[in-house]
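hiii, so i know i said id send this last week but things got crazy w the move. better late than never?? heres the sequnce for the chain we talked about at the cafe, plus the structure i predicted for it. fair warning i was half asleep when i ran it
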Amino acid sequence: MKLVLPARNLGSFRYLLGCICNTGVDGTSFLQLFSIKRALHSRLHRQILKRKSLSNPFEWEKLCSNQMHAQVVINHGIPSWVMKDAIDSAEEFFRLPSDKKMCFASTDVHAPVRYGTSMNHVIDKVLFWRDFIKHYANPISEWIHLWPSDPPSYREKMGSYAKAVNTLQKQLMEVILESLGLNADYLHDDIEEGSQVMAVNCYPACPEPDLALGMPPHTDYGTLTILNQSQQGLQIMDEDKKWRAVPFVQGALIVQLGDQFEVLSNGRYKSIRHRAILDSHKQRLSIASIHSMPMEKKVGPAPEVIDEQHPVAYKEGSFSGFLDHISVKSVSEDTYLDTLKIHEA
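okay and structure toks below
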């Protein structure tokens, strides 16, 4: 897919603004502008976001509604070599002999570093065509010593990417919170000290990809997930419950809203149901940086989004509560988000 940027002053404009490629149900795409730079966290920032003279003004609310299908983000500020180094280090890890990887194997979904297959191989009824290693990453100084030391460059390369993507996440959160009518520094300390889980995935080539999945349909429990991948393989469910492929754009990142943001917005913004499909010839690698408030922090709807027309629709929940839930429930059963929804009698 060829991305054509708007014909404007692209020098400074590209520095200040990023682009979203929003893929529609008919396979077409269009570009919309949105801010991801701290330089716009100022009066100029607000003026640009609100300016009506732009032919394609950024409207995060529109993109986060049920009409939103994919967010492929470019001009995000993370160097392409940092992204590639992280993917390369992931590939080197998954090439290691089994015994070197199995030393990180665990059935404890709370483990700060965990290698395995499927979502939760203890309770999942079907095993999926995937190997993964997950590790906590924020603050990185507390966790990096637990990460794999083999391959030798893994901690350095994956650590550089983890720090860069966490910075991007904080910038994006400011913009999305403002679009909800909240202050950009709403829950600032919780976001600063929030959980970051790096889910590093390997989807080997599958001889019969139509009969298997890399990951089953699910939503992420968190505020934002930012995905770096080696090739196309992510699908998102649209409002008609049809699966749509998210295009692969070299150097781009995919941003998805999670369940925690759906709760925070009281359902105004929805988490994205997605799955990973397989390829018969090529292995696919992906790194999902899953962000949430601190592990034990209970998050409910922001008071500012509640009124008589929009009563509280969710109970409070935490990332720790989500982990407890998936330790006993398969992803094909009721989700943790379902347990938080308040259903009127």
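btw The chain is about 25% helix and 20% strand. thought thatd interest u
miss u guys!!
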